[in-house]
Amino acid sequence: MYKHIKSLTSMRGIAALIVVILHFSYYALPKTGSTLSNYSDFFKNGYLWVDFFFILSGFIMTHVYAEDFYLKVSLDNYRSYLFSRFARIYPLHIFILSLFIGLEFVKLFLPNHSAFTGKFNLTALFANISLLQAFDLNCPPLFWCNTYWNEPAWSISVEFVIYCIFPLLLFVLLRSSEKNDLIIYSFTLFSILLLITFTRGNLDSIIGIPSIARCGLECILGIITYKVYRRGNYRKYFNLNFLAIIAIIWIILIMHYYWHHWRSLHDWLILPAFSILILAISVNHNGAISKFLNSRLMLYLGTISYSIYMVHWFIQELLKLFWIYAFHNAFGKGFTEYEALTSLVVFLMMVLFAASLTYRFVEVPARNYLKSTILRKECIERQ
């Protein structure tokens, strides 16, 4: 039985909140983004925390499933694993998608609004229901697709593809030696740099089909990082607090600046820092960073992080629609800097409240129901 790594749960919450702030500040209410960028481009670079999610996902799934797939990939284990992953991501996804469908029906009764058009067309809806929104072949050059009803859900579409091949990746990579792990990690990093350079020039724009490679390669970084964690050799040479501080400073320096030139290099340079941060905080100790991450508040934020990530875009869309209907103006038009920043705080409170509800009444019950159903079915089949 694997041991829960609490600090990584908290990091999921931090990463989700950074993505939420990015989306609100630079998409829903750009006035907020311009105000924040006067001080730092940290949140403008917030999309990089999706890449943190991908690396972290590879690390945590290796932690959970290494014993299951080290010796072989059996059909029973693979089926159980894949259904568990499906139960983890799909119920909340389909619930949020149903809210978007309801919003489109509301538009039918509003003046000057068209429903089920643009990115909210029915073909895109089918792709989203099927978790195929990353496979739109009708948008050359396949590097930018307009098939996302719930914008953040593009990442779970590509993650599920990687979930399907993840046991095979584990089966192969868990057998590599320490020397080969370094080679694999370096080659994977170089491959990501090539992917960034020869697609859109930055990680933010790598969506659609190339995002599958983005997710898969970063998942491999997570697997190799976990192998280093399990060996524990690095603890002889590095103080864990010091290692975490180095990683945090590294990440902050990268995210503080928005390189308009050498953009591909900027985004790529943060990836090793994410691996180092995950490595440093995975071991429980009495340092200030561990105590902060293991606090009840941070652990709760991490626990509801998937709901935070999935629900916030719908709240944005609902807020913008309500604002136009109520005030006959685009949301935030004419806001002062103070009003824009206040709106961000209020929005975050709304997201956290909504995420708490969806976690408690949708995400957990649906996941438990699906898992209990498949377990019951397996027991019947074995009788």
Automatic annotation (TrEMBL):
Gene Ontology MF terms in the entry: acyltransferase activity
Residue stretches making up the Acyltransferase domain: 6-354
Entry keyword Transmembrane helix: yes
Transmembrane segments: 46-66, 87-110, 153-175, 182-199, 205-226, 238-259, 265-285, 297-315, 340-362
Pfam families in the cross-refs: Acyl_transf_3
Swiss-Prot/TrEMBL keywords: Acyltransferase, Membrane, Transferase, Transmembrane, Transmembrane helix
Highest rank taxon of the organism: Bacteria
Protein name per the record: Acyltransferase
Organism: Nostoc flagelliforme FACHB-838
